[in-house]
Amino acid sequence: MRRAVIAMASATALAIAAPSMAVAHVQIAPTIVAPNDPVKFTVLVPGERESQTTRVAMKMPAELLPFAYEETPGWQRRLVKAANGSVEQIVWTGRLAHDGFVEFSFLAGTPPRTGQLTFKAVQTYSDGTVVRWIGAPNSERPAPVARIVAGAPRQNAGGEGQKPSAVTPAGAGASLPAARTATDWAARILALIALGAVCVLAFVVMRGHLRGRKGEKMR
Question: Which structural domain range is residue 214 located in?
Fold first, then answer.
């Protein structure tokens, strides 16, 4: 009887844990972005099966403009472009342990409108299994989604546009050379005056010395 109770408890625990184990899926961050803003997106890919993940392909949402990509150690990146040169897909290939995860980051300009960005992804495993993360938010395999919200904080990732500068203001910078020039001229004038005084003193001393010698000779 005791063994039956323990077995039932174990089965119940596994049944409760099973949904939480299946929750992990491909994700995108951030999930809220500003319109018309360069944003750093990060794709999180967990290993969910006993075999290794070897390929991740992600379709870019319409009007999203990727322009820079972070290198991920152990992974190769390939861009699939449309006829007009825009990036349609980013494909990463490598090896991910079944109990590990990997992150891929890239910079992209968001559209100048509000709405939703859907990042459909396909995850391929070493045993040939293909998992398509292309469903609706509440489906078994949802596609990662980010929302474009007016008034959301801007990232300005990549340093595009102007930012406040910590450099000395133009007015102060312009007056600095003038002050240095005035100081330099004052130092030069003082040096010339000192040099002239030394010359005069030397002349007086030499003249007195010569007069003394002349007087001795006359005696």
Answer: 185-219
Handedness of CA 28, 29, 34, 37 (dihedral sign): negative
Strands 145-148, 32-33: pairing kind = parallel
d(CA 191, CA 193): 5
pLDDT tens profile 93-128: 999 999 999 999 999 999 999 999 999 999 999 999
- Domain assignment present for residue 170? The answer is no
Cβ neighbors of 154 (< 8 A, separation 6 or more) are 34, 37
Residues 190, 131 within the same domain: no
Does 203 fall in a domain?
yes
The verdict on pTM exceeding 0.70 is no
Q: Which residues of 117-147 are buried (b: 16+ CB within 10 A; e: fewer)?
A: bbbbbbbbbeeeeebebeeeeeeeebbbebe
